[in-house]
Amino acid sequence: MVNNYRYETFVPLYITNHCDSQCKICNLRSQNKNVERKEGDKEQILSQLKIILEVEGISAVCFLTGEYKPGTKRVENLELILWCIEQAFMMGFQKVYFNIGSLSDSEVARISEKFNGDERIVLSLFQETYHRETYRKFFGYDDKENPKSDFNQRLSTPERWMQAGFKQVDIGVLLGLRDPEYDVKNLIEHAKVLSEMGARVHISLPRIRGVDKVPYDISDHEFKNIVADIAKALPEANIIVTTREDVEVLKELLKYAKIISPGSSDVLPYTKEGDIPNNLSTSQFQVAPIRKRPSWVLNSLELKGGSIRYYSV
Ligand code: SF4
Q1: What is the third-level CATH fold of 7-309?
Q2: Any ligand 1 atom below 6 A from CB of 101
Q3: What is the pLDDT of residue 239?
Q4: Fewest beta carbons less than 10 Å away: which of 10, 14, 42, 195?
């Protein structure tokens, strides 16, 4: 038994691919008629959790959905996520992330009422870009029909989450929207503010995948330098690397990362055996139509003696 873990892991679990937002770079944007919309029911979600926990041996998960405009669907989605988090802990998951978009004050209060600052819960919410004009271009501008277009509500959510007594946040930028220098600088500042509030800060640095033309192409070399710079500026932060990246790139990032997240952005994709799907018609983005299961990815990384928390081989 190793007590001094070097890495952590978690698996993403998309429970739906419905979304009211209109993000130009996302396959799940509401206007995309090519997506076959799917939504998991509670029984299907529980069976996915069972596979992640018992077959894959991974006891940390991130629940993801699209973002809904104010109204019944948005309320129902939040309640479903609260149910998911509760079920996951009851089953034996040790850490739960959730990513459902920005939160209003009343939504933070509702989560707080239910989980009262539970330190095992991580709010996952990436600003994507801190540059307002770029944000407007790709995510819209204060449009009531497009919930993600509210830049300020998104930016203020992690601080309001911390003020409610929670302890863990996962912030990030979407690399490839613009020249990364401004965003990286602002991401570091944002992380420092949250850290001073007592947060355990996680940093996500997804590169745009699955679009015909990336607005600002970031090479592997530039990407590695960005990750290295952030690791240097924020030594306490938990940099997350995911299987958006090829395994060879992942291996090179291991010296900077603290968390490895393998999985698929398809809806409820985990199976009891064999590969897992990443269909373009149902996923947020496609890396390849068929993907390796999370445990296979973790086993294929050469950790050089490092071990993985929340993963029992
Ligand atoms: S990035 Fe998120 S909020 Fe935007 S369209 Fe995709 S799923 Fe919806």
Answers
A1: TIM Barrel (3.20.20)
A2: yes
A3: 98
A4: 42
